[in-house]
Amino acid sequence: MKKNLIQEIKTLENLPNSIKEINNFRKNDNSDVSALVKILKKDSLIVSNILKISNSNLFGGNYKIETFNKAVELLGVKLILAISIGTIISKTINKNLFAYAVTNDDFFYSSALSAIFIDNWLGQINEDLRNELLLPAFLQDIGKFIISQLIQDDRQTEFFLKSLVETDDISACELEFTGYTCSRISANIFKHWDFSHNIIFPIAFTQDLENCPKDFLHKAQVLNVVKILCDIRNPLSNNNIEKALKKVLEYNFDVEYFLNSLDSIRERIEKNSQHSLSNN
Membrane-spanning residues where (predicted)? Predict the structure, then answer.
């Protein structure tokens, strides 16, 4: 399967020109939101994903967000950029996540949750680090699309799902079935497309901290915590919260900041879910 995996990455199509437009906007720190909206509206799937997330329990609740401009205003430029880049990448890879028994919507939900948690958590501590890690946090599980396809091609879906349930450890199952961690696969996808090393390295070593270059260790540790917490199959489950908290302690992070962010986001989700139910 390792050989097939490497070949799958090597044969990925080039990203469309729209990614260059979005990256140029992001790198230039452009504040002209109307220019960004004009770029993004060209892609109906980007518009659809942004509206879905803006109406999820991460944001929506009091009223339905029906216009793209309102969604951009609600989510903020940095998250909009992450969703847009993630959408283009997932569309280019063009695979499903059946092997994980989840949908593409589940992927975008857990990825948005990861970015929101980074924004809330690191926003209390280090704004520069927050800005650097928001996009890697959103993109770090993109390798799951490749893993899912290979497992399906190898007729291993039933066994993979059984292992996921029995072990409750997605990363261990991915390594067992493919020979690679999802983080390493994601990093190689971004390397194939010539993404910045500031995105590639923190993701690549998220699950290989012992070999992580010193300059990227702290970033990889942060992504590791968020990866556990926002697990695509069980985001913010009690078990994943417990595992993430253990990592926070192990890495000597400030527990109070972590718990403050966790409480804030869980409260937001609960409140928005209640509003959504009362409006239906």
Answer: none
- Whether residue 130 contacts residue 93, with contact meaning beta carbons closer than 8 Å, is answered with no
Place of tokens 């990866």: 227
Mean pLDDT, residues 204-227 taken together: 96
What lies within 8 Å, CB to CB, of 33 at 6+ separation is 72, 77
CATH of the domain at 76: 1.10.3210.10
pLDDT of 275: 63
Predicted pLDDT at 200: 96
* Residues sharing a CB contact under 8 Å with residue 211, sequence separation 6 or more, in sequence order: 205
- pLDDT for 164 beyond 70: yes
Return phi, psi of residue 14, to 5°: -65, 150
Q: Are 53 and 75 in contact (CB under 8 A)?
A: yes
Map residue 18 onto helix, strand or coil. Answer: helix
pLDDT for residue 280 is more than 90: no
If one compares 279 and 157, the residue with the highest pLDDT of the two is: 157
How many domains does the structure of the chain reveal? 1
0.85 exceeded by the pTM? yes
- Domain containing 194 equals 2-279
Tell me the C-alpha distance between 171 and 113, whole Å: 19
DSSP class per residue in 201-250:
HHHHTTT-GGG--HHHHHHHHHHHHHHHHT-SSSTT-HHHHHHHHHHHHH
CA–CA dist 87, 22 (Å, integer): 12
> 261, 124 in Cβ contact below 8 A?
yes
